[in-house]
Amino acid sequence: MKRITCGALAAIASLALIGVAADAQGQGPARAAARSFDAHDISGFWALSFDSRKVPSAKLLPRVTRAMIDLHARRDVHAMRWCNLLGTPFAMDSGSPIDIRQGPTTIIIAPENNPAPRYLYLGRKHVSPDIYDNTTNGDSIANWEADTLVVDTVGFHPTRGITSIPGGGFKTDKSHLVERYRLLENGDVLSVTFTWTDPNVFAAPHTYEFRYYRLPSTYEPVSTWPCDPYNETRAKFIGDPAPLTASAK
Amino acid sequence: MSVAGTARYEMKVALAAAGIIALTFGVVAQPSAQTRPEALQGVQRLEGDWVRVDPNGSGDFGGLTSKFTPASLTSEATAAVEAMRRAQNAPRGPAYTDEKPHDTGQPYIVVAKPCAAGPFGGGALGINPDSGAIHFVISKDEVILAPERGGIRHIYMDGRKHPDVSRWTPTGSGHSIGHIENGELVVDTMGIAPGPVTAGGWRTPETHLIEHFVVSADGQHLVINYRWEDPKIYQKPHEYHYELDRLPSGSYAFEEWCDASDPLEQQSIVPPPQQ
Protein backbone atom coordinates (compact mmCIF):
# COMPACT_ATOMS: atom_id res chain seq x y z
CA MET A 1 0.00 0.00 0.00
CA LYS A 2 2.91 2.27 0.77
CA ARG A 3 3.98 2.06 -2.83
CA ILE A 4 0.94 3.95 -3.93
CA THR A 5 2.00 7.48 -4.65
CA CYS A 6 -0.93 9.10 -6.38
CA GLY A 7 -4.67 8.93 -6.55
CA ALA A 8 -4.69 7.31 -9.96
CA LEU A 9 -2.46 4.49 -8.83
CA ALA A 10 -4.60 4.09 -5.74
CA ALA A 11 -7.64 3.73 -7.95
CA ILE A 12 -5.96 1.07 -10.05
CA ALA A 13 -4.87 -0.86 -6.99
CA SER A 14 -8.33 -0.61 -5.54
CA LEU A 15 -9.93 -1.92 -8.67
CA ALA A 16 -7.41 -4.73 -8.93
CA LEU A 17 -8.05 -5.76 -5.37
CA ILE A 18 -11.78 -5.71 -5.80
CA GLY A 19 -11.36 -7.75 -8.93
CA VAL A 20 -9.33 -10.37 -7.13
CA ALA A 21 -11.82 -10.53 -4.31
CA ALA A 22 -14.72 -10.76 -6.70
CA ASP A 23 -13.04 -13.51 -8.70
CA ALA A 24 -12.22 -15.48 -5.60
CA GLN A 25 -15.72 -15.32 -4.29
CA GLY A 26 -17.62 -15.16 -7.54
CA GLN A 27 -19.16 -11.85 -6.60
CA GLY A 28 -18.75 -8.22 -7.58
CA PRO A 29 -20.00 -5.17 -5.74
CA ALA A 30 -23.17 -5.99 -3.85
CA ARG A 31 -26.59 -5.28 -5.25
CA ALA A 32 -29.36 -4.82 -2.75
CA ALA A 33 -32.37 -4.98 -5.05
CA ALA A 34 -34.18 -7.51 -2.91
CA ARG A 35 -32.69 -6.37 0.37
CA SER A 36 -33.97 -3.81 2.79
CA PHE A 37 -31.46 -1.50 4.36
CA ASP A 38 -31.23 0.65 7.44
CA ALA A 39 -30.46 4.21 6.44
CA HIS A 40 -28.87 4.71 9.86
CA ASP A 41 -26.35 1.87 9.62
CA ILE A 42 -23.37 2.35 7.32
CA SER A 43 -21.72 -0.93 8.36
CA GLY A 44 -20.17 -2.88 5.54
CA PHE A 45 -17.17 -3.34 3.32
CA TRP A 46 -16.77 -0.41 0.92
CA ALA A 47 -14.49 0.30 -2.01
CA LEU A 48 -13.78 3.18 -4.34
CA SER A 49 -13.77 2.63 -8.08
CA PHE A 50 -12.51 4.69 -11.02
CA ASP A 51 -15.69 6.79 -11.05
CA SER A 52 -15.87 7.33 -7.29
CA ARG A 53 -14.10 10.63 -6.81
CA LYS A 54 -15.32 14.16 -7.46
CA VAL A 55 -12.50 16.37 -6.25
CA PRO A 56 -12.32 20.04 -7.30
CA SER A 57 -9.19 22.08 -6.84
CA ALA A 58 -8.91 23.68 -3.42
CA LYS A 59 -8.85 27.47 -3.10
CA LEU A 60 -5.69 28.10 -1.14
CA LEU A 61 -4.56 31.20 0.71
CA PRO A 62 -1.85 33.28 -0.99
CA ARG A 63 0.53 32.37 1.86
CA VAL A 64 0.44 28.73 0.76
CA THR A 65 3.38 28.53 -1.60
CA ARG A 66 4.42 25.90 -4.07
CA ALA A 67 7.39 25.15 -1.85
CA MET A 68 5.13 24.42 1.12
CA ILE A 69 2.98 22.06 -0.93
CA ASP A 70 6.08 20.33 -2.25
CA LEU A 71 7.44 19.93 1.25
CA HIS A 72 4.26 18.17 2.36
CA ALA A 73 4.37 15.97 -0.71
CA ARG A 74 7.92 14.95 0.12
CA ARG A 75 6.95 14.26 3.71
CA ASP A 76 4.13 12.06 2.46
CA VAL A 77 6.62 9.92 0.57
CA HIS A 78 8.83 9.80 3.67
CA ALA A 79 5.89 8.55 5.74
CA MET A 80 5.13 5.81 3.25
CA ARG A 81 8.75 4.79 2.91
CA TRP A 82 9.11 4.35 6.71
CA CYS A 83 5.78 2.59 7.19
CA ASN A 84 4.44 5.35 9.41
CA LEU A 85 0.81 5.58 10.32
CA LEU A 86 -0.72 7.53 7.44
CA GLY A 87 -3.89 8.93 8.96
CA THR A 88 -6.91 10.77 7.63
CA PRO A 89 -7.75 11.70 4.88
CA PHE A 90 -5.50 9.06 3.29
CA ALA A 91 -7.31 6.31 5.21
CA MET A 92 -10.42 7.04 3.18
CA ASP A 93 -8.64 6.38 -0.13
CA SER A 94 -5.69 4.14 0.62
CA GLY A 95 -5.98 1.80 -2.37
CA SER A 96 -7.79 -0.93 -0.46
CA PRO A 97 -11.38 -1.39 0.75
CA ILE A 98 -12.48 -0.08 4.11
CA ASP A 99 -14.48 -1.97 6.72
CA ILE A 100 -16.98 0.26 8.50
CA ARG A 101 -18.67 -1.18 11.57
CA GLN A 102 -21.25 0.73 13.53
CA GLY A 103 -21.71 -0.11 17.19
CA PRO A 104 -24.01 1.46 19.76
CA THR A 105 -21.43 4.03 20.86
CA THR A 106 -18.68 4.00 18.26
CA ILE A 107 -18.24 3.63 14.52
CA ILE A 108 -14.90 2.22 13.43
CA ILE A 109 -13.43 2.69 9.96
CA ALA A 110 -10.72 0.13 9.31
CA PRO A 111 -8.78 0.45 6.06
CA GLU A 112 -7.57 -2.95 5.00
CA ASN A 113 -3.95 -1.91 4.62
CA ASN A 114 -3.65 0.39 7.61
CA PRO A 115 -3.23 -0.65 11.24
CA ALA A 116 -4.65 2.51 12.77
CA PRO A 117 -8.42 2.62 12.34
CA ARG A 118 -10.54 5.71 12.68
CA TYR A 119 -12.86 5.85 15.69
CA LEU A 120 -15.99 7.99 15.30
CA TYR A 121 -17.51 8.44 18.73
CA LEU A 122 -21.28 8.82 18.72
CA GLY A 123 -22.99 11.42 20.87
CA ARG A 124 -19.85 12.79 22.46
CA LYS A 125 -18.07 16.10 22.65
CA HIS A 126 -14.47 16.48 21.52
CA VAL A 127 -11.77 15.54 23.97
CA SER A 128 -10.39 18.62 25.68
CA PRO A 129 -7.44 19.93 23.64
CA ASP A 130 -5.68 20.37 26.99
CA ILE A 131 -5.21 16.60 27.24
CA TYR A 132 -5.44 15.45 23.63
CA ASP A 133 -2.22 14.56 21.84
CA ASN A 134 -2.83 15.35 18.19
CA THR A 135 -2.85 12.28 15.96
CA THR A 136 -2.78 11.35 12.30
CA ASN A 137 -6.51 10.56 12.39
CA GLY A 138 -7.57 13.32 14.75
CA ASP A 139 -10.43 13.24 17.28
CA SER A 140 -13.72 12.39 15.56
CA ILE A 141 -17.23 12.71 16.94
CA ALA A 142 -20.38 11.74 15.07
CA ASN A 143 -24.09 12.47 15.14
CA TRP A 144 -27.02 11.54 12.95
CA GLU A 145 -28.91 14.40 11.30
CA ALA A 146 -31.90 12.75 9.63
CA ASP A 147 -30.35 10.20 7.25
CA THR A 148 -26.91 11.78 7.27
CA LEU A 149 -24.12 10.90 9.64
CA VAL A 150 -22.16 14.06 10.36
CA VAL A 151 -18.60 13.50 11.55
CA ASP A 152 -16.57 16.34 12.99
CA THR A 153 -12.81 15.92 13.33
CA VAL A 154 -10.15 18.14 14.89
CA GLY A 155 -6.80 17.47 16.54
CA PHE A 156 -4.79 16.50 13.50
CA HIS A 157 -1.04 16.16 13.84
CA PRO A 158 0.56 18.72 11.53
CA THR A 159 3.52 16.66 10.36
CA ARG A 160 2.91 12.97 10.98
CA GLY A 161 1.63 10.63 8.32
CA ILE A 162 0.31 11.79 4.97
CA THR A 163 -0.68 15.42 5.35
CA SER A 164 -1.67 16.32 1.78
CA ILE A 165 -5.38 16.73 1.14
CA PRO A 166 -7.09 15.62 -2.11
CA GLY A 167 -7.59 18.60 -4.38
CA GLY A 168 -4.79 20.62 -2.81
CA GLY A 169 -3.64 21.93 0.50
CA PHE A 170 -2.53 20.05 3.57
CA LYS A 171 -3.39 19.38 7.19
CA THR A 172 -2.21 21.50 10.08
CA ASP A 173 -3.10 21.40 13.76
CA LYS A 174 -5.75 24.02 12.98
CA SER A 175 -7.49 21.90 10.36
CA HIS A 176 -11.17 21.07 10.81
CA LEU A 177 -12.84 18.31 8.81
CA VAL A 178 -16.59 17.77 8.55
CA GLU A 179 -17.73 14.62 6.77
CA ARG A 180 -21.30 13.79 5.78
CA TYR A 181 -22.06 10.08 5.23
CA ARG A 182 -25.26 9.09 3.45
CA LEU A 183 -26.43 5.85 1.93
CA LEU A 184 -27.68 6.02 -1.67
CA GLU A 185 -29.18 3.59 -4.16
CA ASN A 186 -30.91 1.39 -1.64
CA GLY A 187 -27.80 1.14 0.49
CA ASP A 188 -25.46 -0.03 -2.27
CA VAL A 189 -23.55 3.24 -2.43
CA LEU A 190 -22.12 5.32 0.40
CA SER A 191 -21.64 9.01 -0.33
CA VAL A 192 -19.13 10.83 1.81
CA THR A 193 -18.59 14.56 1.39
CA PHE A 194 -15.47 15.98 2.99
CA THR A 195 -15.25 19.66 3.88
CA TRP A 196 -11.94 21.03 5.11
CA THR A 197 -11.43 24.40 6.70
CA ASP A 198 -8.16 25.80 7.99
CA PRO A 199 -7.39 29.48 8.59
CA ASN A 200 -3.79 28.87 7.58
CA VAL A 201 -4.40 26.95 4.37
CA PHE A 202 -7.78 27.39 2.68
CA ALA A 203 -9.27 30.61 1.31
CA ALA A 204 -12.69 28.94 1.30
CA PRO A 205 -14.04 25.65 2.64
CA HIS A 206 -12.70 22.84 0.47
CA THR A 207 -15.36 20.23 -0.29
CA TYR A 208 -15.09 17.03 -2.31
CA GLU A 209 -17.07 13.81 -2.49
CA PHE A 210 -16.26 10.11 -2.65
CA ARG A 211 -18.86 7.48 -3.49
CA TYR A 212 -18.04 4.01 -2.22
CA TYR A 213 -19.49 0.81 -3.61
CA ARG A 214 -20.70 -1.80 -1.16
CA LEU A 215 -18.79 -5.08 -1.40
CA PRO A 216 -20.49 -8.43 -0.76
CA SER A 217 -21.17 -9.12 2.90
CA THR A 218 -19.08 -12.28 2.52
CA TYR A 219 -16.03 -10.21 1.64
CA GLU A 220 -13.02 -10.77 3.86
CA PRO A 221 -10.20 -8.24 4.17
CA VAL A 222 -6.68 -9.21 3.30
CA SER A 223 -4.90 -8.91 6.62
CA THR A 224 -1.32 -9.49 5.58
CA TRP A 225 -0.39 -6.31 3.75
CA PRO A 226 3.37 -6.07 4.14
CA CYS A 227 5.33 -2.99 5.05
CA ASP A 228 8.99 -3.39 5.93
CA PRO A 229 10.87 -0.12 6.40
CA TYR A 230 14.16 -2.04 6.18
CA ASN A 231 13.46 -3.57 2.79
CA GLU A 232 16.12 -1.86 0.66
CA THR A 233 14.56 -2.76 -2.67
CA ARG A 234 11.30 -1.23 -1.60
CA ALA A 235 13.06 1.81 -0.17
CA LYS A 236 14.88 2.47 -3.45
CA PHE A 237 11.63 2.19 -5.36
CA ILE A 238 9.82 4.68 -3.18
CA GLY A 239 12.74 7.01 -2.52
CA ASP A 240 12.89 9.31 0.47
CA PRO A 241 13.22 12.97 -0.48
CA ALA A 242 12.25 14.35 2.95
CA PRO A 243 14.72 14.05 5.80
CA LEU A 244 13.33 13.55 9.28
CA THR A 245 14.59 16.96 10.34
CA ALA A 246 12.47 18.85 7.81
CA SER A 247 10.84 21.56 9.84
CA ALA A 248 7.09 21.96 10.05
CA LYS A 249 5.54 24.85 8.19
CA MET B 1 7.79 -0.82 21.26
CA SER B 2 11.22 0.70 21.76
CA VAL B 3 12.33 2.03 25.11
CA ALA B 4 11.94 5.55 23.82
CA GLY B 5 8.51 4.63 22.61
CA THR B 6 7.73 3.17 26.01
CA ALA B 7 8.65 6.43 27.68
CA ARG B 8 6.37 8.32 25.35
CA TYR B 9 3.62 5.80 25.96
CA GLU B 10 3.94 6.21 29.70
CA MET B 11 3.68 9.95 29.23
CA LYS B 12 0.52 9.49 27.24
CA VAL B 13 -0.86 7.29 30.00
CA ALA B 14 -0.14 10.09 32.47
CA LEU B 15 -1.93 12.54 30.22
CA ALA B 16 -4.83 10.16 29.91
CA ALA B 17 -4.95 9.89 33.69
CA ALA B 18 -5.17 13.66 33.84
CA GLY B 19 -7.97 13.46 31.34
CA ILE B 20 -9.75 10.91 33.45
CA ILE B 21 -9.51 13.19 36.46
CA ALA B 22 -10.86 16.00 34.34
CA LEU B 23 -13.73 13.81 33.28
CA THR B 24 -14.41 12.87 36.87
CA PHE B 25 -14.83 16.50 37.77
CA GLY B 26 -16.94 17.29 34.76
CA VAL B 27 -14.43 19.40 32.85
CA VAL B 28 -15.34 17.48 29.72
CA ALA B 29 -18.98 16.71 29.10
CA GLN B 30 -20.04 13.18 29.92
CA PRO B 31 -21.79 11.16 27.24
CA SER B 32 -25.44 10.56 27.84
CA ALA B 33 -26.46 7.47 29.78
CA GLN B 34 -27.83 5.80 26.70
CA THR B 35 -24.40 5.76 25.09
CA ARG B 36 -22.72 3.97 28.01
CA PRO B 37 -21.85 0.45 26.82
CA GLU B 38 -22.22 -1.03 30.29
CA ALA B 39 -25.88 -0.02 30.22
CA LEU B 40 -26.48 -2.01 27.05
CA GLN B 41 -27.79 -5.55 26.89
CA GLY B 42 -26.15 -8.84 25.97
CA VAL B 43 -23.03 -8.92 23.87
CA GLN B 44 -23.25 -5.18 23.18
CA ARG B 45 -21.90 -4.61 26.68
CA LEU B 46 -18.53 -5.66 25.29
CA GLU B 47 -18.38 -2.47 23.27
CA GLY B 48 -15.87 0.09 24.41
CA ASP B 49 -12.39 0.29 25.81
CA TRP B 50 -10.63 -2.26 28.01
CA VAL B 51 -7.20 -2.66 29.53
CA ARG B 52 -5.59 -5.71 31.05
CA VAL B 53 -5.17 -5.68 34.82
CA ASP B 54 -2.93 -7.43 37.32
CA PRO B 55 -5.50 -8.86 39.75
CA ASN B 56 -2.94 -10.56 41.97
CA GLY B 57 -0.39 -7.77 42.21
CA SER B 58 2.17 -9.80 40.29
CA GLY B 59 4.00 -6.68 39.22
CA ASP B 60 5.10 -7.78 35.76
CA PHE B 61 3.99 -9.83 32.80
CA GLY B 62 6.03 -12.83 33.91
CA GLY B 63 4.29 -12.73 37.25
CA LEU B 64 0.91 -12.45 35.58
CA THR B 65 1.35 -15.70 33.73
CA SER B 66 3.32 -17.55 36.43
CA LYS B 67 0.12 -18.76 38.06
CA PHE B 68 -1.28 -20.17 34.84
CA THR B 69 -1.20 -23.94 34.48
CA PRO B 70 1.65 -24.62 32.03
CA ALA B 71 0.74 -26.15 28.71
CA SER B 72 1.03 -29.91 28.53
CA LEU B 73 2.79 -30.37 25.20
CA THR B 74 3.32 -33.37 22.99
CA SER B 75 6.94 -34.31 22.21
CA GLU B 76 6.63 -32.77 18.73
CA ALA B 77 5.48 -29.48 20.14
CA THR B 78 8.15 -29.54 22.84
CA ALA B 79 10.81 -29.69 20.12
CA ALA B 80 9.23 -26.75 18.30
CA VAL B 81 9.19 -24.67 21.45
CA GLU B 82 12.84 -25.49 22.17
CA ALA B 83 13.83 -24.45 18.64
CA MET B 84 11.96 -21.21 19.13
CA ARG B 85 13.79 -20.50 22.38
CA ARG B 86 17.16 -21.17 20.76
CA ALA B 87 16.29 -18.72 18.01
CA GLN B 88 15.22 -16.11 20.55
CA ASN B 89 18.49 -16.41 22.44
CA ALA B 90 20.71 -16.18 19.39
CA PRO B 91 22.73 -12.97 18.95
CA ARG B 92 20.86 -10.43 16.88
CA GLY B 93 23.61 -8.03 15.94
CA PRO B 94 25.75 -5.37 17.58
CA ALA B 95 22.91 -3.86 19.57
CA TYR B 96 22.45 -7.07 21.46
CA THR B 97 26.13 -7.93 22.00
CA ASP B 98 27.19 -4.52 23.26
CA GLU B 99 28.63 -5.30 26.69
CA LYS B 100 30.35 -1.98 27.30
CA PRO B 101 29.45 -0.26 30.56
CA HIS B 102 27.27 2.81 30.14
CA ASP B 103 27.16 5.86 32.36
CA THR B 104 23.99 6.66 34.21
CA GLY B 105 21.70 8.57 31.92
CA GLN B 106 23.77 7.80 28.84
CA PRO B 107 21.62 6.76 25.90
CA TYR B 108 22.83 3.88 23.78
CA ILE B 109 21.43 1.74 21.03
CA VAL B 110 19.36 -1.17 22.27
CA VAL B 111 17.18 -1.75 19.22
CA ALA B 112 18.95 -2.09 15.89
CA LYS B 113 15.75 -1.92 13.83
CA PRO B 114 13.02 -0.10 15.70
CA CYS B 115 9.47 -0.66 14.53
CA ALA B 116 10.95 -3.53 12.53
CA ALA B 117 7.79 -5.57 12.43
CA GLY B 118 6.10 -2.42 11.25
CA PRO B 119 2.72 -1.45 12.57
CA PHE B 120 1.27 -3.18 9.53
CA GLY B 121 2.39 -6.62 10.63
CA GLY B 122 1.55 -8.73 13.61
CA GLY B 123 -1.98 -8.78 14.89
CA ALA B 124 -1.29 -11.14 17.79
CA LEU B 125 -2.10 -8.41 20.31
CA GLY B 126 -5.71 -8.84 19.28
CA ILE B 127 -5.60 -12.27 20.85
CA ASN B 128 -3.40 -11.81 23.90
CA PRO B 129 -3.42 -8.10 24.77
CA ASP B 130 -0.43 -6.54 26.51
CA SER B 131 -0.53 -3.30 28.50
CA GLY B 132 -2.08 -1.42 25.60
CA ALA B 133 -5.84 -0.97 25.63
CA ILE B 134 -8.14 -2.91 23.33
CA HIS B 135 -11.31 -1.55 21.80
CA PHE B 136 -14.47 -3.42 20.80
CA VAL B 137 -17.04 -2.26 18.29
CA ILE B 138 -20.08 -4.53 18.15
CA SER B 139 -22.08 -4.54 14.94
CA LYS B 140 -24.68 -7.03 13.76
CA ASP B 141 -22.53 -9.06 11.40
CA GLU B 142 -19.06 -8.42 12.72
CA VAL B 143 -17.26 -7.64 15.93
CA ILE B 144 -14.05 -5.65 15.61
CA LEU B 145 -11.40 -6.01 18.26
CA ALA B 146 -8.79 -3.30 17.80
CA PRO B 147 -5.64 -3.42 19.90
CA GLU B 148 -4.37 0.07 20.49
CA ARG B 149 -0.87 -0.92 19.49
CA GLY B 150 -1.76 -1.99 16.01
CA GLY B 151 -3.76 -4.41 13.95
CA ILE B 152 -7.43 -5.12 13.52
CA ARG B 153 -9.15 -8.36 14.38
CA HIS B 154 -12.31 -9.14 12.43
CA ILE B 155 -14.71 -11.54 14.17
CA TYR B 156 -17.41 -12.60 11.73
CA MET B 157 -20.83 -13.06 13.32
CA ASP B 158 -22.86 -13.85 10.20
CA GLY B 159 -22.62 -17.63 10.40
CA ARG B 160 -19.85 -18.11 7.89
CA LYS B 161 -17.38 -20.98 8.26
CA HIS B 162 -13.61 -20.98 8.47
CA PRO B 163 -11.78 -21.19 5.14
CA ASP B 164 -9.87 -24.32 4.25
CA VAL B 165 -6.57 -23.91 6.07
CA SER B 166 -4.72 -24.97 2.91
CA ARG B 167 -6.03 -21.83 1.18
CA TRP B 168 -5.46 -19.44 4.06
CA THR B 169 -2.36 -17.31 4.56
CA PRO B 170 -1.62 -17.46 8.30
CA THR B 171 -1.71 -14.15 10.14
CA GLY B 172 -1.05 -12.90 13.65
CA SER B 173 -4.70 -12.97 14.58
CA GLY B 174 -5.94 -15.73 12.26
CA HIS B 175 -9.52 -16.18 11.04
CA SER B 176 -12.20 -15.70 13.67
CA ILE B 177 -15.88 -16.61 13.67
CA GLY B 178 -18.13 -15.83 16.60
CA HIS B 179 -21.53 -16.52 18.03
CA ILE B 180 -23.45 -15.65 21.16
CA GLU B 181 -24.06 -18.13 23.97
CA ASN B 182 -26.12 -16.96 26.94
CA GLY B 183 -25.39 -13.34 26.07
CA GLU B 184 -21.64 -13.93 25.86
CA LEU B 185 -19.39 -13.75 22.85
CA VAL B 186 -17.75 -17.05 21.94
CA VAL B 187 -15.08 -16.97 19.24
CA ASP B 188 -13.36 -19.78 17.36
CA THR B 189 -10.09 -18.88 15.65
CA MET B 190 -7.73 -20.80 13.37
CA GLY B 191 -5.14 -19.87 10.77
CA ILE B 192 -2.81 -18.13 13.20
CA ALA B 193 0.85 -17.93 12.22
CA PRO B 194 3.07 -20.46 14.04
CA GLY B 195 4.44 -19.18 17.31
CA PRO B 196 4.44 -19.30 21.07
CA VAL B 197 1.32 -19.26 23.20
CA THR B 198 1.02 -17.88 26.73
CA ALA B 199 2.16 -20.22 29.54
CA GLY B 200 4.39 -22.47 27.48
CA GLY B 201 2.05 -23.23 24.62
CA TRP B 202 2.56 -23.40 20.87
CA ARG B 203 0.34 -22.93 17.86
CA THR B 204 0.21 -23.64 14.15
CA PRO B 205 -2.39 -22.56 11.58
CA GLU B 206 -4.31 -25.78 12.31
CA THR B 207 -4.58 -24.99 16.03
CA HIS B 208 -8.01 -23.82 17.21
CA LEU B 209 -8.43 -21.17 19.87
CA ILE B 210 -11.80 -20.87 21.60
CA GLU B 211 -12.38 -17.68 23.55
CA HIS B 212 -15.26 -16.81 25.87
CA PHE B 213 -15.66 -13.11 26.60
CA VAL B 214 -17.46 -12.72 29.93
CA VAL B 215 -18.53 -9.25 31.05
CA SER B 216 -19.34 -8.78 34.73
CA ALA B 217 -22.84 -7.89 35.87
CA ASP B 218 -21.89 -4.25 36.41
CA GLY B 219 -20.23 -4.07 32.99
CA GLN B 220 -16.92 -2.91 34.40
CA HIS B 221 -14.84 -6.10 34.18
CA LEU B 222 -14.07 -8.52 31.42
CA VAL B 223 -12.66 -12.04 31.66
CA ILE B 224 -11.36 -13.67 28.49
CA ASN B 225 -11.17 -17.45 28.88
CA TYR B 226 -8.73 -19.02 26.43
CA ARG B 227 -8.77 -22.66 25.36
CA TRP B 228 -6.21 -23.85 22.80
CA GLU B 229 -7.02 -27.16 21.10
CA ASP B 230 -4.68 -29.16 18.89
CA PRO B 231 -4.02 -32.86 19.45
CA LYS B 232 -0.71 -32.55 17.61
CA ILE B 233 0.49 -29.99 20.12
CA TYR B 234 -1.40 -30.40 23.38
CA GLN B 235 -1.87 -33.53 25.44
CA LYS B 236 -4.96 -31.79 26.77
CA PRO B 237 -6.52 -28.40 25.89
CA HIS B 238 -4.44 -25.52 27.18
CA GLU B 239 -6.51 -23.09 29.22
CA TYR B 240 -5.94 -19.80 31.02
CA HIS B 241 -7.70 -16.48 31.36
CA TYR B 242 -7.00 -12.76 31.20
CA GLU B 243 -8.76 -10.11 33.25
CA LEU B 244 -9.46 -6.60 32.00
CA ASP B 245 -11.13 -3.46 33.36
CA ARG B 246 -13.29 -1.09 31.40
CA LEU B 247 -11.66 2.28 30.88
CA PRO B 248 -13.54 5.24 32.33
CA SER B 249 -16.36 6.82 30.38
CA GLY B 250 -15.02 9.33 27.90
CA SER B 251 -11.84 7.37 27.22
CA TYR B 252 -10.61 7.21 23.67
CA ALA B 253 -8.15 5.21 21.62
CA PHE B 254 -4.56 6.37 21.65
CA GLU B 255 -2.42 6.34 18.55
CA GLU B 256 0.73 4.24 18.83
CA TRP B 257 3.37 6.16 16.93
CA CYS B 258 6.67 4.52 16.05
CA ASP B 259 8.81 6.11 13.35
CA ALA B 260 11.51 3.75 12.17
CA SER B 261 13.42 6.68 10.67
CA ASP B 262 13.78 8.38 14.07
CA PRO B 263 17.19 7.53 15.62
CA LEU B 264 15.75 8.08 19.08
CA GLU B 265 13.61 4.99 18.62
CA GLN B 266 16.82 2.93 18.86
CA GLN B 267 17.95 4.25 22.18
CA SER B 268 17.63 3.07 25.75
CA ILE B 269 16.45 6.44 27.00
CA VAL B 270 15.44 9.72 25.45
CA PRO B 271 18.07 12.32 26.36
CA PRO B 272 16.69 15.41 28.06
CA PRO B 273 16.79 18.72 26.18
CA GLN B 274 20.26 20.28 26.40
CA GLN B 275 20.59 23.68 28.11
Question: Can you put this structure into words, describing what you see?
Answer:
Chain A is an alpha+beta fold. Chain A has a single domain (7-238), classed as Calycin beta-barrel core domain (Lipocalin), CATH 2.40.128.20. Chain A contains 3 helices and 10 strands, in the order H-E-E-H-E-E-E-E-E-E-E-E-H. Chain A has helices at 7-25, 66-81, 232-238, and strands at residues 44-47, 53-54, 98-102, 106-111, 118-122, 139-145, 148-154, 176-184, 189-197, 206-214. In chain A, strands 1-3-4-5-6-7-8-9-10 form a 9-stranded mixed β-barrel. Chain A starts with 6 loop residues before the first helix and ends in an 11-residue tail after the last helix. With 275 residues, chain B is α+β, with helices and mostly antiparallel strands. Chain B has one domain (3-266). In chain B, strand 7 and strand 8 (201-203) form a beta hairpin. Chain B is globular. Classes of the chains: A alpha+beta (249), B alpha+beta (275).
List the helices and strands and how they pair.
The complex is a heterodimer of chains A (249) and B (275).
Chain A: H1 7-25, E1 44-47, E2 53-54, H2 66-81, E3 98-102, E4 106-111, E5 118-122, E6 139-145, E7 148-154, E8 176-184, E9 189-197, E10 206-214, H3 232-238
Parallel strand pairs in A: 5-6
Antiparallel strand pairs in A: 1-3, 1-10, 2-10, 3-4, 4-5, 6-7, 7-8, 8-9, 9-10
Chain B: H1 3-24, E1 48-52, H2 61-66, H3 75-89, H4 94-97, E2 134-138, E3 142-147, E4 153-156, E5 175-181, E6 184-190, E7 195-197, E8 201-203, E9 208-215, E10 221-229, E11 238-246
Parallel strand pairs in B: 4-5
Antiparallel strand pairs in B: 1-2, 1-11, 2-3, 3-4, 5-6, 6-9, 7-8, 9-10, 10-11
